[in-house]
Amino acid sequence: MEINPSDRDPRSKNILLVDDERLILxxxxxxMRGHTVFKALDVLSALGQLEEVKMDLVLTxxxxxxxxxxxxxxxxxxxxxxxxxxxxxxDPPLNLA
Length: 97
Hints:
Layout: E1 14-18, H1 22-31, E2 36-40, H2 43-52, E3 57-61, E4 63-64, E5 67-68, H3 69-79, E6 84-88
Parallel strand pairs: 1-2, 1-3, 3-6
Antiparallel strand pairs: 4-5
């Protein structure tokens, strides 16, 4: 879903949600009203979208088949330093620091 830039609220952001569970993606996307939301089911799809669209925020799950959120956010940090990054997980608390 893309919005004509001239119709876009200047406070609106491009947000990439990454999770292997479609229900989680849909739930999160509904909460992001007023922003342009892009969804990816895996790390590879997320990286492809990052090459196509200038994102403002990447919110990713920790565990996914074919890759993990830590690896994705590390790649985003190096390739797209302007993009804000956050990770979420339904797994028990992890000591990742």
